[in-house]
Amino acid sequence: MGPDGIHPRVMRELADELAKPFSIIYHQSWLTGEVPDDWKLANVTPIHKKGGREDPSNYRPVSLTSVPGKIMEQFILSVITQNLQDGQGIRPSQHGFRRSRSCLTNLISFYDQVTHLVDADRMALQRDLDQLDGWAESKKMKFNKSKCRVLHFGHNNPLQHYRLGMVWLDSAQEERDLGVLVTAAEQEPAVCPGGQEDQWHPGLDKE
User: Fold this and answer.
1) Is the N or the C terminus of the chain less surrounded, counting Cβ atoms within 10 Å?
2) Which is nearest to 93 in space by CA: 108, 81, 78?
């Protein structure tokens, strides 16, 4: 309860009777750009946070202002917030200081976006494999699907499964192509001397 002594219960119990006089006050305040002097005052109550109670710095001041003033503040806040959201002043990605949003909803939204992008990339790769298999069939060609494998890069890369036609492809930890050894680990590829597989030495695989 603020310095004006108006208790919230009075506002609730006498809402019908107080609606018109308060609407006049709110309208006049809006037109003049001023508020009653009582709305500028507050009863400050110190709330103990932690530590010794004899230390003033361990208290958080809480200001109890006028209840009618708080109601008008909510009116103005709702209008400003709505205008900012409609005009993209506050983007949908902003979760702080917004109703029904929090750090948790921010993380959930980020997770949904990331998984959506990952799924989109996975579906795009599978679509390319389907087109490649269809092209081979139209040209009367055959892939040796037993030698086709999936190489996953990175330690935290989810091991997605892909198929070529009706055959599911196995995963591989490394592949050698034209004398270059490529591994699933996050490291530089190793070059085989002379481009010959039998001349490759494990020491050339940098870690």
Assistant:
1) C
2) 108
- Whether residue 155 is contained in a domain is answered as no
pLDDT bucket at 185, cuts 50 / 70 / 90: low
> Is 58 among the domain residues?
yes
- The number of distinct structural domains making up the chain is 1
Q: Is residue 166 part of a domain?
A: no
Q: Is 189 exposed, middle or buried (0-12, 13-18, 19+ CB in 10 A)?
A: middle
- Range with the lowest mean pLDDT among 36-50, 73-87, 173-187, 191-205? 191-205
Q: What strands, in cross-sheet order, belong to the sheet with 180-183?
A: 174-177, 180-183, 190-191
Asked, for residue 151, whether it belongs to a domain, the answer is no
Distance in angstroms (rounded) separating the CA atoms of residues 114 and 110? 6
The three-state secondary structure class of 178 is coil
Range of the domain at 38: 8-86
> What number is the average pLDDT over the span 141-164?
77
Maximum Cα–Cα distance for the chain, whole Å? 96
Q: What amino acid occupies position 41?
A: L
